[in-house]
User: Fold these one by one.
Assistant:
Number 1:
Amino acid sequence: MNDLAISRFSRSLTARAGVFLLFAALTLAATAGLAQAAVTLDVQKTGGTYNSIQDAINAAGITTNTVVIRVAEGTYQENLDIYLASDLTIQGGWNSTFTSRDTNRATVAYGDSYGSEIDISESSITIDGLTVTRGNDSDGGGIDVGDSELTLRNCKVVRNWADDNGGGIWANYTTLVIENSEIAHNITSGDDDDYYGGGLYVYGGSLVIKDSSIHDNNTAADPYDSGDGDGGGVYLKDTSATIERTRILDNSTVYGDYDSYGGGIYADSTNLSLINDLIAGNSTYDDQGGGLYYYQYDNGNNLSIVNSTFSDNHSDGSGGGAYIYTYGEGAVDIRNSVLWGNLNPEDLYLIYDDGTTDLNISYSDIGTTGGDPFTAGPGVISADPLYVNSTDDFRLRAGSPAINTASSAGAPATDLDGIARPQGAGFDMGAFEWVAPTVLDVTAPTATLTTPYISSNVKKNQDFDLSWSGVDPAPSSGGLLFDVWYKIGNGGAWHRWLDWTATTGRRFRGLRGKTYYFKVKAKDAAGNVGAFSSESMTLVPFDGLLGNYIVSRNGFYLNKWTKASNNNYGRTLRKSSAKGEQITYRYKKTNQINLIATLGKGHGKFKVLVDGANKGTVDTKASTTQHRKIVFTVDFASFGTHKIQVVNLGTPGRPTIEMDGIAVRR
């Protein structure tokens, strides 16, 4: 036994020892009549009940209980061994307190030594919300599973490596279910050996894949190696597989001295059903089946392709889209599908036994063909399907011959995007159902914005509320989003405040003495973007402090309050109670000055001088107390430096003057 085998055996033995000890304890408890409840085990890198996933697996042991291992987000650098586990679930995406779970939270199992990141045997297990990465082994760099039942849900199996088979996953005589998961950037690399299944290798057992993505996987080797390199994305052998609502994209088989079949999928002696799948951008080097290579020889296996799209796949041999070889008993059913725009040289290459193979090709759009001639069934066309984009968006455009021309027989209820079928008078060919817009919206929406002119009118601090709205002219696509910008001062630079928000209002906090300008534009659901609104401005006043702006002062003492209930602006004001007391302010770069005062029964009159000129008298008497009121405004022809002076006239019986702030437009 070499060092590698000894290391893996040692880890497995340690794990199994813990399993058997806990099983013995549970058995004794059961014998004593104690009830066995469902078990929940929590894993967190620091401070948790278990600090590693393997510790929790060991603690789960062999039991008839349902065991849920909850794993907090984080990166766990360890290789996992799971043996004889029953009804075990590993859940990633938990927060640090295990009070909420989101599978978008990164919970990463990261290989720490040579060997499969997760090694599973003779177990029934669900893995939900885990990222499996950086595993490396001869078979199954990410996951090596045998003689088991495994469900992968909301998982990512990415950037793993196998020296032989199954860069991402190697499954042997296993019931494997993959849902809403991603298998990507995995690789197999042979060295004078065979290297199959860059993303996924399945031998025996069964496979179901739904709502998933298998992309950018490959089988690769030195060009002088003598091994085969089949199944860049998926390799299937002697199994039964259903792949539904799944994207198989940009996988490849490269180099190798011998065979290199099936860039996207390789299937040998397998019952294979493809439903609502997009198979695109896959390639083989020097061999057959860029998108799909299917082979069965007199063993009664069936191939079914329904409402699937094969496009932009490439093969240096035959069957850029699909290469199908079927001999003897078995069936091939291609229905409601599109095989178009594949390279070198055919969209479909077919070899079959006319005497015993049940061949049905119907209601499909098939481009170039090769191999044995065949008689097309009803509804088969050969015409440009009019993709939105022939390299990366294979949805149909208006006018496509694939719209409303498929069969309802066996058609799925929804398309690859989850859109209900049919949308029109009939079902559409391919993976995508075309949705006719009711009316095309090409008119940009308009937007308006409202702000208070002076913030102290509505708030006793620098906060103020903005609101905005939009109008999307008919025919409206709705869903308005708003882009809100601001600048400080007339000559300031514009800055984005809110980036395409659906909200129609927000509170803004300004700086005292600043003038803020705002503008907004709207975008509708059709992508039409309108022009910016007219600018709206808000002046944030100076409060009673104003030390740097006071030129001279006689009286007008500063009053300050600490209680939040105080209604003065900034909880400060300048107060005068005697005739002749005055205060003078000077401001630069302004074209408007506003005086803010308190009105009330005991408040009197003051005189205003601007740049030395008498501008009149202001009376601050009112029947009720009113705070933060604009009592005087002066405008200037241009921006410049100006002085403003307030002189208490000592009104008999009501000599009090309270200056609460000054708003300056800049």
Number 2:
Amino acid sequence: MLRWSKVMPRLQVECKRSPSDEFKDVKLRTGPEMINSPVTKQNVVRPKNPEKEERNARIRERYANGETQKAIGKDYDLSKGRISLICKGVVRKVKPTRAKNPEKEERNARIRERYANDEPANKIAEDEVLSIASVYHICKGVERKVNPPRKIELEKRNARIRERFANGETQEAIGNDFDLTRQAVSLICKGVERKAGRKARLRLEPGEKEKRNARIRERISNGETLAEIGKDYGLTPPTVCIICKGVERKVNPPRKIELEKRNARIRERFANGETQEAIGKDYDLHRNSINRICKGVERKAKPPRKPRARNPEIKERNAKIRERFANDEPANKIAEDEVLSIASVYHICKGVERKVDPRKIEREERNSRIRERYANGETQKAIGKDYDLSKGRISLICKGVVRKVKPTRAKNPEKEERNARIRERYANGEIAKEIAKKERLSREHVYHICKGVERKVKPKEERNAMIRKRYANGEVIKKIANDEGLSVSLVYCVCKGVERKVKPIRTRNPTIEKRNARIRERFANGEIAKKIAKDEGLLVYSVYHICKGVERKVKPPRKPRVKNPAIEKRNARIRGRFANGEPVKEIAKDEVLSICRVYQICKGVRRRKGLPKRAGRKKNTKFSGPGRMDSARPTEKPL
């Protein structure tokens, strides 16, 4: 056998390059063992480019002199990674160029000529049967990325996965072999293709943008719709509308500049040795946010939301209403048929927008002030404190998200009086639980009334009839419960006709009420809870419960114990002997009991069960015998 060291000196490579293929003709002259060897990337030698070699030498010199890779990359228009490879002396692998198709080249030249003559891209795309994006790519000379080998490999892999699944293997086992999740294997077996992410928009040069915008304005003046023009140019109708009006997008550089200054100050303080938590407290930021700023990591911005599409059903309804009104039909009849108010019918027919509530105008002014403060660099938390709003609400206002407002119901005068009474009592410091008991309401309902939150209420009989009807039609209980704002168990009881058990309200003891009022007064005057507890014969915890208005849970009464006749006789005998003057020690020995137990029986004290064991012994104690513990005297030092 010949060694590689003997064959290598005889290897000569001749490369003939053509404009189409860089490595098309390769001739190998080797020994007899290398005649049938395939041509690979390793045994192809590229001739070096002298200009690139000089440039790389200059780059290495500058890097050796202490310049940063970023600064060198800016001068030579190269990335930081590319400069790093040049400094390390790593050679990049160059892929061979594909052979060009003469027909495509002619077509591309024709497209570029037509585009230079100011023909619209959508017309060229229609004639050449291409997409508008492809036309723009051809005009700019951008090559499309094609990756057929990976697609073929994926198809082969998916075919193998389907075969194994058909043979009875589990999805988890297949996923472990191919390094995929079970859900991905399931999608492959079902033949479901995964959705690709949003494609990047085409960026036009300033001159091309102006030409495109001029063509769009011409088409608008000719009477074409925004949607048609948007489809042709790959734009949304609002963007087309902005182009026609000549409105430029709002840019907010001042906020960015302020944030950069703030971040620079944060980095200085961190470099001087301050902790991230201390810096975060000063700037009202989380420790993780300070960490990101110090590392120079930028937060990912969320993509903008799509504009909301109008409801086609409402459009059709409004058109129908206008037709009927034009045919001299009365407005009240149209309102009855379409289930609308007469005012709404008149608004639709005249094209009048609804009157704006003055509170809405105030809200809009407040929201604009909030957005200005947020744009000036203030945090959402600080703004929320000033306006008494949550951080989430401030976030929605800054994003311009509108909250859904529910329609108001007709008010009941009796309920209004009751609610006013409840609010007065709550403002005077009464507890919600006490108010709820007196007014026969739940505590949550009292809180709703005090906060001004309206509850969804329907007449019980109508609601229950509707629930039973929906359940008979085959609807799920959970869905009915969500729609009606009830619990699943209550809907189930309504459907089955089962009545819920209601606990009776306990009657109050007037003497206990007076005592509790007295305790609250004393506590409000500054007396200590311990002293009050001693005077009233209560625990300190009970005093705190009374002052806070917390009710104690009352345990049900215990069942009377069945007495053991033998133990009762023994206890009577012990009491008789103790009454006759016998010592406790002798009684305890005879009855095989402890002295403490004998004293308990004689005094009639019940024995407590289930008490926890003592955690430790007292200091200065010693055991003087089995079952006894006496206090140990301190040992005297010998003289």
Number 3:
Amino acid sequence: MGCLSPRCREEQVVLLVHVEMRVCCELGQRPIAGSGGRAPVGGGRVPGRDPIELVEEATDRLVCPGERLDLRDECLAVGFRRRRGERAHQWEQMLLLSDEVRFERRFGFRTFTSDNGRFTLNGRPLFMRGVLDQDDHDGPAGVAGSHQSLIDRFAMFKAMGFNTLRCHVKVPDPVYLDAADEVGLLVWCEIPTTSRLTHAARERIEHTLVAMIERDRHHPSVVVWGVANEAWGYDLLGSREHRSWLNELSHLAKAQAPDRRQLAVRPQLPHRDRHRGLPLLRRAARDAAAVGRLHRGLHHPRGFHVQPARRRSAHPRRAARQRFDLWHLDEVFASYADLCINTQRRQFDTLRYQIESMRARPEIAGYVLTELGDVHWEANGLLDMTGTPRSFAGELVAVNRSPAVIARLDRPRVWSGGSVRVDVVAVNDDVDRQAVTVQCRTDEADDGEVSMWSAPGALRAHAHHSVDRFEVTASCRDLPRLATVHCDLRDGGELVATTQHPLLVVPRTGPHLDAGQVLVVSDDELAGRLSTLGYTVRRRGGTDDDDAVRVMRHLDEDDHDFIERGGRGLLLADDVDALGPGFGEFPPVSLRAWEDALFGGGEWVSAFTWLRRSDRFAGLPGSPILDASFEGLAPSVVITGIPPARFQYDVLAGVFVGWIHQVASIVARHHAGLGSILISTLKLTEHPADEDPLADWLLHQLVTTAWEQQ
């Protein structure tokens, strides 16, 4: 089709369509009163005019929207009715007729630009809230979903607050784009990728790109043509030729569709995704903001994922349940369903943190989240492989809405009676708002009493506003508790946005040991830390060491002998050599780096760390899966070799990957000879004593647990 004018404020169009199917149009007059809503149609060829010239002449021939005409000349007629998409103007049911040609196609009017680092749609700023879509459906492979199923899927996706779909490395079926047009979503189309950039691959990619644009450019939903994904098939860092060709491909796309954006997505950077659960993903999200993209969110094991090498094995959902029982995780989580709920909650917490981190930075124009639905090789979707939404789907709209209030606590945990600083940013992608106030409080306030108010004044449309810095205080009694920090944005007294963040509050407690119980150490720094925390400490080498607990960072031969002849120890391991050589005969316990033990050097599936909330750890609030309260404590080393038969007795905290694969421990007992040692890989000594409330509290519980070992 030819170029369509974006001026669409009127209700009718006049078209002159040549038999070569090149179309031009210009907005015409509104119908006169009494015309029944009928629109004028260009009738007959205009003498002396080029077939693609814009015309405005109205004739006395009228046609109702959607009416079909049979014209006996070179011109074609059009029936139409108007729709509104996501700030785009769509005209549908365009029916072209002649004595030989019958052709129906939708088209639309809209402008989409990127200026000064921002997207605009029909002249208005747009923050792109996108999700990568593998376009993989619960049905026959290679077959697009039905029109109605796509409509339902996209409507559900739009209800979550997203406005853009990135159809990943494939040319979408036309029914996919028709559904996006109808629902009112923007689409980012991409050409397929190649494993090696051969001459034949280049020709095929170029041909596919041109054909895709030619076929699909009339869809108002399509706003981006993607010409590359990461570095798949390309050596962008090492090959000048590859970089030059990719640049040429971008120019080719621009020549075919000058009104669309062309993007090469995420060239491979010296940066790795981290999937260690929320504590490390919070740090990763800050790195992600710097490069303008999100990491994969967490997922849950309620799906059909299996490792590629095991796809012909037992039903994966059943197999995941079997592994749940095998590793005695029913003593960690209330049930298998409870594990699913907890992992989904961590996925939402991570997504919210990442999305808010993006929205809080004015230099970022949007994001694309991986991904809309689970597929066999990735399990981080907002939907599972059956198309069922995650349990948090209804909460995403609050994360994506505008205006939004985004709060960041300067620390995830405080001592009882301590205060936390809260930095607040108000994001407004909507209309101007005048009388705006921000309220920040904790859940300790009585009868709605607030901690502090701030009045930033008017919030301009499509802008970020840094609000005054708040400071709130929280306290607890004998046990830690999770307080909630609330930040509310009000416009003229009406609540228009709100956010909540957990804050772990820890009481100041001393050792849980009797006066005569002594800790033996050989590390000066560790001795000073334990003394500061109130313990009686002496150096290794005394005659009565056998009645004490040794606290160590690394085991040597003397420590091995001490444990095997009946001693008790606590090992705070922070590297893979902490156990020393030849420790223990059965089972063969060892320390391994996180990446090697769980992912084999690559991280494509999320990992979940958990802590058994029983015995000495029963007083710690929250679910078994570690949350943001543990930021900075997540381990880089794991304990392997403890068999399932001993898991329920000896493992206090652990980790699993995906649907309960690569199970390992992070706090566990190990028995050797007549004695035993409690091993922890949590990072509890990163900060000075009495500075990190949770690290000190956990260390107290570990020391007590080590003393109680038989």
Number 4:
Amino acid sequence: MIAYRGGYSGQSELIQKIDLIGSDLDNFSCPSCGSTDRERHLKLYLEKFCLDKFNKNLRVLHFAPESKIFQIIREVNPEIHILADLYPRDKLIKRIDIQNIPYDDNSFDLIIANHVLEHVADYKLALNEINRVLKKDGLAILQTPYANKLSSTMELIGELNDADRLFFYGQEDHARLFGSDIFYIFGSHLSDKVSCHSELALDACNNFAVNVKEPFFLYGKNVTNPYLKNTPENLQSDTDSKIAVSICCISYMHENYIYDALKSFAMQRTDFNFEIVISDDASSDRTREIIYEFRETSNLNINIIDRKINVGMHKNLSDALAKCRGEYIAFCDGDDYWSDPLKLQKQYDALRGDRSCVLAYSDVQAFKNGFIDYQYIGGATRDFSQVELICMPSINTLTAMFINVFDDMPEEFNLSGSPDMFLWGYLGIYGSGKYMQNIMPSVYNIHASGVHSLRTDFEKIKMRHMTAFALCVLHHRLSHLEVGLHFKNKLKVDLMGCINFFGPQFGIEFFEAIQSRLENLSPKIKGLANDLLVQLRTSIL
């Protein structure tokens, strides 16, 4: 085993005398697998006390995620696994302050925050937040170093430099050194379920090179905690018959997914009325049957567009949008679903609270072949100005709610390759976009029959360029000449770059795809689109 910074003998005289309990500094890192003693110990504790309690619907919030513990949780195949840190070093990790967790009360089955609480400015606030978002039967794992011979937690007054913190606390970035009162402190905020090493009942000859003095800091929710917020269990829809939000769902061959989508709509708790508009594009599997069965057994307002002939994604979506009566529209395809029961309420309140904002969106958790795809990087995680939104940024479609301005869908929509990105660009004419981190990630399913998820990069980029051309035509027709010129000039540069990268075939397929759609446009828009297409072709070929 490899020692950490010289092992125990490398610690200050003070730290050596007060019996610091945490990592085994002499046997810290395994030269074979790279695991730390903390990870090895936690693996033993998890196998003994926790893993059998986890189910397929597990929702996990994991602060400062350790690679080996991450792998253990990954193998459990949770429904939601949010990786969090105040200073994330990876795109997969969300920037979240443990002292101000953005999620609702009772959101998580498991919270992991090992060697975190000695770093934060206000550990009491952090403990209250952990307790707040933990579910009633949830568990929190909070391994934290402490000094066994120190009766009270030590947090010195005044400014300390790195050398001071190393001497008094054992590490330069620690804000305190917990004493033996740590169990009282944690237990006053959470429900104590702490276990000790001896309860692992291991072979005495094999201690796995861990610190046998280190307990398992396992806690449950303290339902009597006075700091818990009072949030209503159920929000009732008001009696006004006006539809505030329309859920727009398009489906095609989604028999393995559509029930989860419908169930996530049904669980929404709102103080307004909403409807569900589902347009199925002549599925030949059981999708339609499941939709009708769900409508029969629920009391939801479900409007079904049932087709006998497949019409394609563009018409299926535009027809569904035309049926939406709400002031706002929320998207979710039939093969995805929402995980936050207050998703609609939060977005509705945000949009009504800021009328300059026309689109709200949040995070996704991607699943591939039934398991979380941790490599998937979703859409935007920041707000967009009106100008930025016009430029059709990438947004997680299944999380979007936006103002309903689609009584008459612009004809240029039919030229687009990516209908959702066209909508974001079109919405930019009316206002800005808002990213909402306080919504639990929605579930995005990647599967063989998915419309977008399994397309090649060639196809995805071509579709994006087709969408940019559609918006170019739209802005020229609306006399937004500066914006139209921006799209045209950017398309020239981008198309030339793609032709250089993919070869001449990219340009050929792009122009053929646009040309094939011109016949379905009105003479005026067809003429404008054709003129722009000729200009574009002339400038790059």
